[in-house]
Amino acid sequence: MPAADAVDGGRRTLLKAGMLGSLLLGAAGVSASLSGCTGRTASAAADYKFLRDADLVMLRALVPGVLGALLPGAGAERDRLLDDLLHRIDLSGYRLGHAGRKALAQLFDLLNMSLTRRALAGIAEWEQATAAQVQAFLERWRLSSFALLNAGYRVLIKLVSGAFYGTQAGWAAANYPGPPPGPYQVFNS
Fold first, then answer.
1. Which domain holds residue 89?
2. What is the pLDDT of residue 61?
């Protein structure tokens, strides 16, 4: 049976960690609000309904970290697939209800703001982030003791993987021959 001092010390450590995390996330939220970051003041990027230019830069770094070897190597095919995935993610974000769009925008703002991106994701700039750095950041969020980071991890993974498995490249990766052509053409025409 553990000594009472050890149990109290464990509780104190847990409470301190919780307080520190809450303060960090609160400070990030306040600084984002004061800087106008969370108001989603920037308009959507050209040819997009929801995603802003900064979101596109972040997602171009995130997608290879999530999909890894499922993406084709560098070249035109990879660029086309990335563009398709970004448009699919954009449409998914746009189709969310007001509350869902707001929450997703806040997550993207958190990952785009320099202070919070560095503190919570460990990424200096998305433009220079490698797939390994993105995978390490996602793994930290997946294993975090903070439910908010776990939820952010799940949202990011589901957005990217859902968009990917809606493509022919995703079907091939899953050994799915694709939908029957007749009904597919009827529903998608």
1. 44-176
2. 95
